[in-house]
């Protein structure tokens, strides 16, 4: 009820033009939440230092891929905003993937997973790319086999999953990667400080951008803690973008649900750290943030947005860049002579 | 003179069988030196914190490769003993490289660079793989152009090379990577502690292995601080190994010098951290350390080495595993819309 009333208040206030500073904050707080300082707990998968450490090792280990070309970090690069800076993945045997890599940062707060929602939770998602035949391409049964050939992992799994008689399993590897992934949150963006009450954390332009972001309707989909990541939407509600941005062969969530209404439906992506994660959209075809705001305005919200407004909204989006964790590169347990070999 | 006298002493003592503990240490000290605790200075390329930091960024940045498939760390993985755990590199467009990746750890102490000695110094080597058409495949002229499109690098280069009017150059990038690479040393291996006087740092078996390593002639080539890395030698001095280990098409240093005597001549690799860096030889075809010792004995030294001796030498080689640096993954400066795009 409170939320609904706030939204009603928002509509009338925002349509009336410039709003009072306190009202803007109240409107923002009704739609968005700050990133917490500590990683959230995962249901049924409690974090322990040993489990996070194991997850960190697996995240950076290229040996649990078919031909050892890369690891989770190759595409979800913790030094590059959690992405790879490419339109789409280049995977096993130099195959071209079809979609842009979403950021790992704050992904734990998403409720929609992958661009098409094909995973139920972060643990399932943690295995997805590893087994995708055009990504890391590891046959699923081989992951625990590969790990079992590396003696140092036996101790690491035993410490992470104490009391289990045979802890080196695919399910446990995914749990460990998921708890490490949950540590990759970026608190203390200027917008978070603003939401917590520091009015000086946003510039005047960014505040105008925030107001436009809400009044133009962007926040109807990009809301919550991640400003996105919690729903799906058709790309082209009002006007279908060109095939350069929306390639016609990729029908999005339709390919998972086979429901006609899901054609060209994709996850609404998070806008957290968006200034770090070009190129944009599921197709990765837009390299300019302002240009992408323009595409969204035309295709999704139908409200005219002029160049000055695009600039203000873009300036607001830049306030969503948070503090990144300093990750120590793991020293991985060595392979032994008996270990399985990478595929050619 | 002192060295020569020591070697003369060695020959007579070692051929006589078991040597006194003090004599073994004296013999070892005449041939080997411990890894220092701090990185060595590079001539004409002084290290500063800003230059090391820039080098760390470039080492992990996949954007300075043709299609952004990887970085220096993709093959010289600081979590995997400084190597990739593969027979040979898989590079740009999934091309297969011909030789095994040498470890970056302690590479600064090598005087022979690459398997065939084609680089003069660590700075030249730092550019080699990046521009190799079957490795990272970046056209040489594009490196500084790519870096110049990333605004954050302007400040990092200016801090690393103060006073230079246009510091974003290929030469400076190579200097920075070289000083970062020089930090990747692994002191305090058990053998280093032994060389410094801690007689208990090696097991009895390892000491027997050390004695065999010297008496059988291994140390004629694998000597110095890196137990290798300071000379070239024909692979197959006494008996040419099979084509499985020595593929006939790769004629080694001959391809650089075009001198007949350099056919099948390769760098004598370091044995530092050898237990972490399987597979072995320039061809990467041997996965077992003991098996590799046997191949060396047959092809290089001509002294019969039985299974027990191989086991003792292998045990000694395991004492060459040092302490690895904890590397913090760099947060890389973001690209901007104007930046150049990766190649497909």
- Cα distance spanning the termini of chain A: 59 Å
Oligomer: homodimer
Number of helices of chain A: 13
**Main sheet makeup of chain A:** 2 strands, antiparallel
Strand composition percent of chain A:
under 5%
Contiguous low-pLDDT stretches of chain A (5 residues minimum) are: 1-7
- Total number of β-strand segments of chain A? 2
Given the C-alpha coordinates, what overall shape of chain A results? globular
What would you call the structural class of chain A?
mainly alpha
Give structural attributes.
2% strand, disordered N terminus, 344 residues, two-stranded antiparallel ribbon, homodimer, globular, mainly alpha
Q: Could you please describe the fold and organization of this structure?
A:
The structure is a homodimer of 344-residue chains. The model of chain A is unreliable at 1-7 (pLDDT under 50). The first copy, chain A, contains 13 helices and 2 strands, in the order ααααααααααβαβαα. Chain A has 344 residues and is mainly alpha-helical. In chain A, helix 1 (2-15) packs across helix 10 (204-215), helix 10 (204-215) crosses helix 13 and helix 12 (289-301) crosses helix 13 (307-317). Chain A has helices at 2-15, 21-31, 49-60, 72-75, 122-131, 142-148, 151-160, 170-182, 190-195, 204-215, 254-257, 289-301, 307-317, and strands at residues 232-234, 265-267. In chain A, 37% of the residues lie in helices and 2% in strands. Chain A has a two-stranded antiparallel sheet.
């Amino acid at each position: 009820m409170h939320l609904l009333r706030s939204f009603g208040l928002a509509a009338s206030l925002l349509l009336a033009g410039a709003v009072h500073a306190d009202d803007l904050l109240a409107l923002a707080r009704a739609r968005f939440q700050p990133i917490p300082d500590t990683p959230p707990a995962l249901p049924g998968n409690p974090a322990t230092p040993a489990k996070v450490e194991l997850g960190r090792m697996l995240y950076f280990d290229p040996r649990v891929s078919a031909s050892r070309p890369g690891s989770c970090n190759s595409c979800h690069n913790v030094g590059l905003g959690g992405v790879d800076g490419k339109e789409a993945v280049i995977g096993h045997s130099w195959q071209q993937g079809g979609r842009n890599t979403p950021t790992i940062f704050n992904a734990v707060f998403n409720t929609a997973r992958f661009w098409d929602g094909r995973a139920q939770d972060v643990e399932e998602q943690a295995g997805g790319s590893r087994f995708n035949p055009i990504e890391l391409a590891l046959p699923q049964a081989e992951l625990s086999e590969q790990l079992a050939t590396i003696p140092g992992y036996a101790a690491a799994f035993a410490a992470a999953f104490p009391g289990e008689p045979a802890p080196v399993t695919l399910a446990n590897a995914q749990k460990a990667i998921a708890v490490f992934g949950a540590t990759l949150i970026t608190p203390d963006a200027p917008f978070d400080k603003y939401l917590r009450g520091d009015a000086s954390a946003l510039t005047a332009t960014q505040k105008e951008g925030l107001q436009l972001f809400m009044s133009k309707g962007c926040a109807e989909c990009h809301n919550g803690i991640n400003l996105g990541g919690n729903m799906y939407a058709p790309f082209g509600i009002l006007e279908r973008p060109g095939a350069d941005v929306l390639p016609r062969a990729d029908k999005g969530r339709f390919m998972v649900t086979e429901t006609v209404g899901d054609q060209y439906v994709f996850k609404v992506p998070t806008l957290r750290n968006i200034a770090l994660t070009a190129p944009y959209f599921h197709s990765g075809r837009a390299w300019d943030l302002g240009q992408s705001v323009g595409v969204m305005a035309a295709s999704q919200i139908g409200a005219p947005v002029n160049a000055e407004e695009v600039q203000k909204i873009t300036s607001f989006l830049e306030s969503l860049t948070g503090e990144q964790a300093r990750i120590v590169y793991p020293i991985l347990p060595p392979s032994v002579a008996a270990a399985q070999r990478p595929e050619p």
